[in-house]
Please model this.
Amino acid sequence: MPTILQHANIHKDCICYHKGDKQTISLKKINRGETGLSRLSSHHIIFILRGAARYTISGLLSTTVVVRSGEFVFLPISTNILWEALEGTTVLTFRLSDYVDKLPECRTFRLQRLSGNISAGDIEKSIYPLQMNARIRHFIDGVVQTERDGLKCNNFAKHLAAMLLAMIQVYYPQEEYMYFYSTVASSDVTFTDQVLGRWMECRTVNKLSGALHMTERQFTQNFQRVFGENPGPWLQERRKECIYNDICSSRMPLGEIAITHGFSLTNFIRYCRMNFGETPGAMRKGMVVDKIGPAPTAGEAAARNDVAPRGPK
Model:
């Protein structure tokens, strides 16, 4: 009978063997003071197994949260994440390729329905860490062991991710579950998820409505109902935030940023002067390592001092 190590070595030639930075499940150790920046192309659930990390989020919301050992958070698609290890930290990440409207939920409870005395509209959208309970910790210990054994089968990882989503629903009170997913909870989870998953590739309301197979009028009505604002200004603000973060919080060449966002370099410079008051070169010269999005509110400033936002008491 082959050993686990032999199985892992044989499996490396399989098309299901997942390599690179976009694995469904990944285990990583980061050193104190280490930082990184990424734009999420899928929903993430991140477990801090040891240490502590600060996450500064911008895009769909702007906030800062400190996640400590034994806690985990949900980070939504299409947000910009600047992270910093506050000490030596071990992180386990689940990348969810499916949208939240496909979460394995019981018929008796869905994100868009009432949960106890609260509904999706009553919750402030923010990042609310959950503490690993005994059931989740036991499950996560098993996942960590498979990672250390080198079992990188993508199909296997997707089954584990599905099990995690179901266990979070089963082993936490509905109120905590609602807060955990507050960033994507709405009166229409399917529509919200489709918008969040497609807006970055669609720069206009017309293109986004077409991508969702709606007329522009139908899309605008749905958007106003679910998001409470007009889609045009919302898209413009999301685009500005992405451009700002690419300039001030990444090492991507400015010419590449211009092309990525559909500009010629001349038009890109004009856009930055109009929207940010200076050229992209001047913005980058004045950038600060944690300058991501607007200035922090009082609550965010408290979070920077290691006070993490929480759900209901």
User: Anything to note?
Assistant: The chain is about 40% helix and 15% strand.
